[in-house]
Design brief:
The chain folds into two domains: 235 residues, 3-Layer(aba) Sandwich (Aspartate Aminotransferase, domain 2), CATH 3.40.640; 124 residues, Aspartate Aminotransferase, domain 1, CATH 3.90.1150. The protein is 39% helix and 14% strand. It binds pyridoxal-5'-phosphate (PLP). Pyridoxal-5'-phosphate binds next to helix 3 and helix 4. Pyridoxal-5'-phosphate (PLP) binds next to helix 3 and helix 4.
């Protein structure tokens, strides 16, 4: 099976994990700290807290950034976890239509900010590895004094001009995910980045049961100061993460090479890339648009027939606001013509660093055969 994404593990990664298994530290130890420092350096950000997964990162970030009842602008084109985190904090997601590149439309965000002072935050997602326009984000943050959380689960290694993903250059917090389909993996895993010492210190406490232990306390003492969680990541996972991080730039180079080949073969055809390579994306996903109304084959048949050929297409994403749970909260009827059209036309093709040329050629050939059938 050629899936839409998968991890790339080599002997060096396995050796790193085994060495940690043989060490004294399995849970929080030196590898967690080293991974956090390496991530901070890579993302060009001051602070990083590694946690159990990207969803935990979003949860804690939302508890720190939001108050109950706050309205938060976010995108329908993401994994459920992005807007679920807004709900975890007792806040209210407001779904905004997407722009051409699949990201939240920041111009529409501005229109909403002009009308509604109850909007306190924006949660943009760097969808597929393509960051939102950082100049516009900076402007909105300053002009409307709005809190920004960037969901960079797809985007480690991406950049917009000189701004690196998860550097928090124009946001309060960014989050990352290390699920195996992402750029680097720790099995499950995630991280929160920020340039604020105050936010960092809150996150440290919250991800470990709300507990504080200081040098002044008695040897056995600890104090619970917040209602926190056990969202810790392990040294075993961070050993893998550190080893993977060494090869991240190579992984991204390979993803870009695959994307550029897709761009080239689809040029002028019925398969339209969501965007052509513009030096920005780190390509967690390669998304294409096809107008199925002009073809004999439906999207469902295409997915099924490609699966019979051993190729896993995927759809990122079903609009979150149309999910039954969100409908039960009154969502679903937002006016999002771009998202509606996107959902009809788009799907993701396989892209992962371990993918070899022969596999990509097979994907391309099979796709054209199916679409022309
Ligand atoms: C955009 C986005 N945000 C958040 C998450 C949640 O990350 P995790 O699976 O590590 O909990 C995902 C996971 O797929 C994602 O795609």
């Amino acid at each position: 099976m050629i899936p839409y994404g998968k991890q790339f593990i080599i002997q060096e990664d396995i050796d790193a994990v085994v060495a940690t298994l043989e060490s004294d530290h399995l849970t929080t130890g030196p590898k967690v700290k080293a991974f956090e420092e390496a991530l901070s350096k890579y993302c060009q950000v001051k602070y990083c807290v590694a946690v159990a997964n990207g969803t935990a990162a979003l949860h804690l970030a939302s508890l720190v950034l939001l108050n109950k009842g706050d309205k938060v602008l976010t995108t329908p084109n993401s994994f459920l976890a992005t807007s679920n985190a807004i709900l975890y904090a007792g806040a209210k997601p407001v779904f905004v239509d997407i722009a051409e590149d699949g990201n939240i439309d920041l111009d529409l965000c501005e229109k909403k900010l002009q009308k509604d002072p109850a909007i306190k935050a924006i949660y943009p997602v760097a969808f597929s590895g393509h960051m939102v326009d950082q100049q516009k984000l900076k402007y909105l943050r300053e002009a409307y004094n709005v809190t920004i959380l960037e969901d960079c689960a797809h985007a480690i290694g991406a950049k917009d001009a000189d701004v690196k993903a998860a550097s928090c250059s124009n946001s309060d917090i960014s989050i990352l995910s290390f699920h195996p389909v992402k750029h680097i993996t720790t099995g499950e895993g995630g991280a929160i980045t920020t340039n604020s010492k105050e936010i960092y210190e809150k996150l440290l406490i919250l991800h470990n049961h709300g507990m504080v232990k200081t040098k002044e306390m008695k040897p056995w003492e600890y104090e619970m100061r917040e209602l926190g969680f056990n969202y810790r990541i392990t040294d075993i996972q961070c050993a893998l993460g550190l080893s993977q991080l060494k090869r991240l730039d190579n992984f991204i180079d390979r993803r870009i090479t695959i994307a550029q080949k897709y761009d080239k073969v689809f040029f002028g055809s019925i398969v339209k890339p969501l965007y052509m390579y513009d030096g920005k994306s780190s390509y967690h996903l390669y998304v294409v648009k096809v107008d199925f109304t002009k073809l004999k084959i439906s999207k469902v048949d295409l997915f099924n027939k490609m699966r019979e050929k051993g190729i896993g297409l995927q759809l990122h994403y079903i609009p979150i606001n149309k999910q039954p749970y969100y409908k039960s909260l009154g969502h679903g009827d937002e006016v999002t013509p771009n998202m509606d059209k996107y959902y009809e036309q788009c799907f993701s093709l396989p892209i992962y660093p371990k993918m070899i040329d022969k596999e990509q050629d097979y994907v391309i050939k099979s796709l054209f055969e199916m679409l022309q059938s």
